[in-house]
Amino acid sequence: SQTIHQWPATLVQPVGSPLSLECTVEGTSNPNLYWYRQAAGRGLQLLFYSVGIGQISSEVPQNLSASRPQDRQFILSSKKLLLSDSGFYLCAWSRTGTGELFFGEGSRLTVL
Amino acid sequence: SQELEQSPQSLIVQEGKNLTINCTSSKTLYGLYWYKQKYGEGLIFLMMLQKGGEEKSHEKITAKLDEKKQQSSLHITASQPSHAGIYLCGADGSGNTPLVFGKGTRLSVIA
Protein backbone atom coordinates (compact mmCIF):
# COMPACT_ATOMS: atom_id res chain seq x y z
CA SER A 1 0.00 0.00 0.00
CA GLN A 2 1.02 3.59 -0.54
CA THR A 3 2.12 5.89 2.26
CA ILE A 4 3.20 9.50 2.45
CA HIS A 5 5.32 11.04 5.15
CA GLN A 6 6.36 14.60 5.74
CA TRP A 7 8.61 16.12 8.37
CA PRO A 8 9.18 17.85 10.61
CA ALA A 9 5.69 17.90 12.11
CA THR A 10 6.29 21.15 13.94
CA LEU A 11 8.81 23.90 13.36
CA VAL A 12 9.42 27.27 15.03
CA GLN A 13 11.84 29.46 13.13
CA PRO A 14 13.02 33.09 13.41
CA VAL A 15 12.41 35.55 10.60
CA GLY A 16 15.20 35.42 8.05
CA SER A 17 16.19 31.83 8.76
CA PRO A 18 16.14 29.08 6.11
CA LEU A 19 13.50 26.37 5.77
CA SER A 20 13.46 22.81 4.53
CA LEU A 21 10.37 20.60 4.67
CA GLU A 22 10.61 17.09 3.26
CA CYS A 23 8.02 14.75 1.89
CA THR A 24 8.40 11.17 0.68
CA VAL A 25 5.95 8.75 -0.88
CA GLU A 26 6.29 4.98 -0.71
CA GLY A 27 4.57 2.19 -2.56
CA THR A 28 4.05 3.90 -5.90
CA SER A 29 6.14 5.19 -8.77
CA ASN A 30 6.04 8.41 -10.79
CA PRO A 31 3.44 10.11 -8.60
CA ASN A 32 2.34 13.69 -9.08
CA LEU A 33 3.47 15.62 -5.98
CA TYR A 34 2.06 18.77 -4.42
CA TRP A 35 2.74 21.31 -1.70
CA TYR A 36 -0.25 23.15 -0.26
CA ARG A 37 -0.36 25.74 2.52
CA GLN A 38 -3.27 26.25 4.85
CA ALA A 39 -3.40 29.59 6.64
CA ALA A 40 -6.14 30.93 8.86
CA GLY A 41 -8.95 32.45 6.83
CA ARG A 42 -7.32 31.62 3.50
CA GLY A 43 -8.19 28.01 2.95
CA LEU A 44 -5.92 25.53 1.22
CA GLN A 45 -3.57 27.22 -1.24
CA LEU A 46 -1.60 25.31 -3.87
CA LEU A 47 2.07 26.33 -3.81
CA PHE A 48 3.89 23.90 -6.09
CA TYR A 49 3.25 20.72 -8.01
CA SER A 50 5.46 18.31 -9.90
CA VAL A 51 4.70 15.69 -12.54
CA GLY A 52 8.24 14.30 -12.66
CA ILE A 53 11.81 14.56 -11.40
CA GLY A 54 13.12 18.07 -11.81
CA GLN A 55 9.75 19.36 -13.08
CA ILE A 56 8.26 21.99 -10.78
CA SER A 57 5.29 24.25 -11.43
CA SER A 58 4.86 27.26 -9.18
CA GLU A 59 1.39 28.58 -8.51
CA VAL A 60 2.18 31.44 -6.17
CA PRO A 61 5.27 33.65 -6.62
CA GLN A 62 6.92 34.15 -3.24
CA ASN A 63 10.11 33.43 -1.36
CA LEU A 64 9.48 29.69 -1.29
CA SER A 65 10.88 27.12 -3.71
CA ALA A 66 10.40 23.41 -4.31
CA SER A 67 12.60 20.65 -5.63
CA ARG A 68 12.13 17.04 -6.61
CA PRO A 69 15.53 15.38 -6.52
CA GLN A 70 14.10 11.85 -6.65
CA ASP A 71 10.92 10.31 -8.03
CA ARG A 72 9.19 10.07 -4.65
CA GLN A 73 10.79 12.96 -2.78
CA PHE A 74 9.50 16.52 -2.70
CA ILE A 75 11.21 19.31 -0.76
CA LEU A 76 9.91 22.76 0.13
CA SER A 77 12.56 25.36 0.88
CA SER A 78 13.17 28.98 1.68
CA LYS A 79 16.40 30.92 2.04
CA LYS A 80 14.88 33.58 4.30
CA LEU A 81 11.57 33.09 6.06
CA LEU A 82 9.01 35.86 6.46
CA LEU A 83 6.36 36.19 9.14
CA SER A 84 3.74 35.60 6.46
CA ASP A 85 5.22 32.14 5.77
CA SER A 86 3.66 30.82 8.98
CA GLY A 87 1.02 28.19 8.36
CA PHE A 88 0.22 24.53 8.02
CA TYR A 89 2.02 22.93 5.08
CA LEU A 90 0.61 19.83 3.49
CA CYS A 91 2.29 17.52 1.02
CA ALA A 92 0.11 15.37 -1.21
CA TRP A 93 0.42 12.91 -4.07
CA SER A 94 -1.82 11.64 -6.82
CA ARG A 95 -1.65 9.03 -9.53
CA THR A 96 -0.96 10.38 -12.99
CA GLY A 97 -4.18 11.34 -14.76
CA THR A 98 -6.34 11.27 -11.65
CA GLY A 99 -7.44 14.09 -9.39
CA GLU A 100 -7.74 12.32 -6.04
CA LEU A 101 -5.11 13.55 -3.62
CA PHE A 102 -3.58 11.63 -0.74
CA PHE A 103 -2.28 13.93 1.96
CA GLY A 104 0.53 13.72 4.47
CA GLU A 105 0.12 14.55 8.13
CA GLY A 106 1.14 18.18 7.70
CA SER A 107 3.92 20.41 9.04
CA ARG A 108 3.08 23.39 11.21
CA LEU A 109 5.50 26.27 10.72
CA THR A 110 5.58 29.25 13.04
CA VAL A 111 7.83 32.14 12.08
CA LEU A 112 8.63 34.51 14.94
CA SER B 1 -9.02 30.34 -12.62
CA GLN B 2 -11.54 28.18 -10.85
CA GLU B 3 -12.89 29.33 -7.51
CA LEU B 4 -14.92 27.44 -4.97
CA GLU B 5 -17.23 29.07 -2.46
CA GLN B 6 -18.25 27.03 0.60
CA SER B 7 -21.10 27.80 2.93
CA PRO B 8 -21.51 28.09 5.77
CA GLN B 9 -18.02 28.95 6.99
CA SER B 10 -18.77 27.36 10.33
CA LEU B 11 -21.57 25.32 11.78
CA ILE B 12 -22.49 24.24 15.29
CA VAL B 13 -25.12 21.53 15.54
CA GLN B 14 -26.54 19.44 18.31
CA GLU B 15 -25.74 15.75 18.25
CA GLY B 16 -28.37 13.85 16.30
CA LYS B 17 -29.31 16.75 14.02
CA ASN B 18 -28.94 16.78 10.24
CA LEU B 19 -26.86 19.34 8.40
CA THR B 20 -25.87 20.41 4.90
CA ILE B 21 -22.70 22.03 3.59
CA ASN B 22 -22.65 23.62 0.15
CA CYS B 23 -19.90 24.12 -2.40
CA THR B 24 -20.37 26.33 -5.46
CA SER B 25 -17.98 26.61 -8.37
CA SER B 26 -17.39 29.57 -10.66
CA LYS B 27 -16.94 27.15 -13.58
CA THR B 28 -18.28 23.78 -14.67
CA LEU B 29 -16.64 21.04 -12.68
CA TYR B 30 -14.77 18.13 -14.20
CA GLY B 31 -14.68 16.45 -10.82
CA LEU B 32 -15.68 17.46 -7.29
CA TYR B 33 -13.95 16.01 -4.24
CA TRP B 34 -14.98 16.16 -0.60
CA TYR B 35 -12.37 15.89 2.14
CA LYS B 36 -12.51 15.97 5.92
CA GLN B 37 -9.77 17.37 8.14
CA LYS B 38 -9.33 17.12 11.87
CA TYR B 39 -7.54 20.12 13.32
CA GLY B 40 -3.80 19.93 12.79
CA GLU B 41 -3.95 16.83 10.61
CA GLY B 42 -3.96 15.96 6.95
CA LEU B 43 -7.04 15.68 4.76
CA ILE B 44 -8.97 12.44 4.48
CA PHE B 45 -10.76 11.69 1.21
CA LEU B 46 -14.53 11.21 1.55
CA MET B 47 -16.07 11.09 -1.91
CA MET B 48 -15.63 12.12 -5.51
CA LEU B 49 -18.43 13.15 -7.87
CA GLN B 50 -18.06 13.50 -11.59
CA LYS B 51 -21.40 13.10 -13.35
CA GLY B 52 -24.19 15.65 -13.33
CA GLY B 53 -26.90 14.58 -10.89
CA GLU B 54 -24.60 12.03 -9.25
CA GLU B 55 -25.12 11.12 -5.60
CA LYS B 56 -22.88 9.05 -3.34
CA SER B 57 -23.18 7.94 0.25
CA HIS B 58 -20.74 6.67 2.84
CA GLU B 59 -22.16 5.73 6.21
CA LYS B 60 -24.22 8.79 7.25
CA ILE B 61 -22.68 11.21 4.75
CA THR B 62 -24.26 11.86 1.35
CA ALA B 63 -22.83 14.07 -1.37
CA LYS B 64 -24.61 15.29 -4.49
CA LEU B 65 -23.52 17.09 -7.64
CA ASP B 66 -26.14 19.14 -9.47
CA GLU B 67 -27.04 18.56 -13.12
CA LYS B 68 -25.10 21.60 -14.30
CA LYS B 69 -22.01 20.39 -12.42
CA GLN B 70 -21.43 23.69 -10.66
CA GLN B 71 -22.76 23.01 -7.20
CA SER B 72 -22.35 20.21 -4.71
CA SER B 73 -23.83 19.57 -1.30
CA LEU B 74 -22.68 17.37 1.56
CA HIS B 75 -25.39 16.15 3.89
CA ILE B 76 -24.81 14.49 7.26
CA THR B 77 -27.66 12.61 8.85
CA ALA B 78 -27.94 12.26 12.64
CA SER B 79 -24.64 13.99 13.35
CA GLN B 80 -22.22 12.57 15.91
CA PRO B 81 -19.19 14.04 17.69
CA SER B 82 -16.98 12.00 15.33
CA HIS B 83 -18.28 14.11 12.43
CA ALA B 84 -16.67 17.24 13.86
CA GLY B 85 -13.87 18.76 11.79
CA ILE B 86 -13.28 20.86 8.73
CA TYR B 87 -14.94 19.83 5.49
CA LEU B 88 -13.34 20.97 2.26
CA CYS B 89 -14.48 20.66 -1.30
CA GLY B 90 -11.89 20.43 -4.06
CA ALA B 91 -12.41 20.93 -7.78
CA ASP B 92 -10.70 19.31 -10.70
CA GLY B 93 -11.05 21.72 -13.59
CA SER B 94 -9.91 19.54 -16.44
CA GLY B 95 -8.79 16.19 -15.12
CA ASN B 96 -5.12 17.05 -15.43
CA THR B 97 -4.82 20.05 -13.18
CA PRO B 98 -4.19 20.17 -9.44
CA LEU B 99 -7.21 20.41 -7.21
CA VAL B 100 -8.38 23.84 -6.15
CA PHE B 101 -10.04 23.95 -2.74
CA GLY B 102 -12.69 25.98 -1.02
CA LYS B 103 -11.92 27.64 2.32
CA GLY B 104 -13.63 24.89 4.25
CA THR B 105 -16.55 24.58 6.65
CA ARG B 106 -15.75 24.06 10.31
CA LEU B 107 -18.29 21.72 11.91
CA SER B 108 -18.74 21.36 15.65
CA VAL B 109 -21.13 18.80 17.11
CA ILE B 110 -22.25 19.37 20.67
CA ALA B 111 -23.89 16.88 23.01
Task: Give the helix tally of chain B.
Answer: 0
Count of alpha/pi helices of chain A: 0
Estimated helix fraction of chain B: under 10%
> Which H/E pattern describes the elements of chain B?
EEEEEEEEEEE
Beta-strand fraction estimate of chain A: over 45%
Largest interface, with counts of residues having CB < 8 Å to the other chain, equals:
A-B, 23 and 23 residues
Low-confidence stretches of chain A: none
Order of H and E elements of chain A: EEEEEEEEEEE
Structural class of chain B: mainly beta
Number of strands of chain A: 11
Percent of sequence in beta strands of chain B: over 45%
> Biggest sheet of chain A, in brief?
7 strands, mixed
Span of the ends, CA to CA of chain B: 41 Å
Radius of gyration of chain A (Å)? 13 Å
Distance between the termini of chain A: 39 Å
Number of strands of chain B: 11
Q: How would you classify the quaternary structure?
A: heterodimer
SSE inventory with pairings:
The complex is a heterodimer of chains A (112) and B (111).
Chain A lengths: L2 E5 L2 E4 L5 E8 L5 E8 L3 E10 L2 E4 L5 E7 L2 E6 L8 E8 L7 E2 L3 E5 L1
Parallel strand pairs in A: 2-11
Antiparallel strand pairs in A: 1-3, 3-8, 4-5, 4-9, 5-6, 7-8, 9-10, 9-11
Chain B lengths: L3 E4 L2 E5 L4 E7 L5 E7 L5 E7 L5 E4 L2 E5 L5 E6 L8 E8 L7 E2 L3 E6 L1
Parallel strand pairs in B: 2-11
Antiparallel strand pairs in B: 1-3, 3-8, 4-5, 4-9, 6-7, 7-8, 9-10, 9-11
Structure write-up:
Chain A is mostly beta strands and 112 residues long. Chain A contains no helices and eleven strands. Chain A has strands spanning 3-7, 10-13, 19-26, 32-39, 43-52, 55-58, 64-70, 73-78, 87-94, 102-103, 107-111. The mean pLDDT of chain A is 93. Chain B is mainly beta. Chain B starts with a strand and ends with a strand. Chain B is globular. Chain B has strands at 4-7, 10-14, 19-25, 31-37, 43-49, 55-58, 61-65, 71-76, 85-92, 100-101, 105-110. In chain B, 0% of the residues lie in helices and 55% in strands. In chain B, the strands form two sheets. In chain B, strands 2, 4, 5, 9, 10 and 11 form a six-stranded mixed sheet that branches. In chain B, strands 1-3-8-7-6 form a five-stranded antiparallel sheet, with no helix packed on it. Classes of the chains: A mainly beta (112), B mainly beta (111). Chain A binds chain B through residues 32, 34, 36, 41-44, 46, 49, 59, 88, 90, 92, 97, 99-106, 108, and chain B through 30-31, 33, 35, 40-45, 48, 88, 90, 92, 95-96, 98-104.
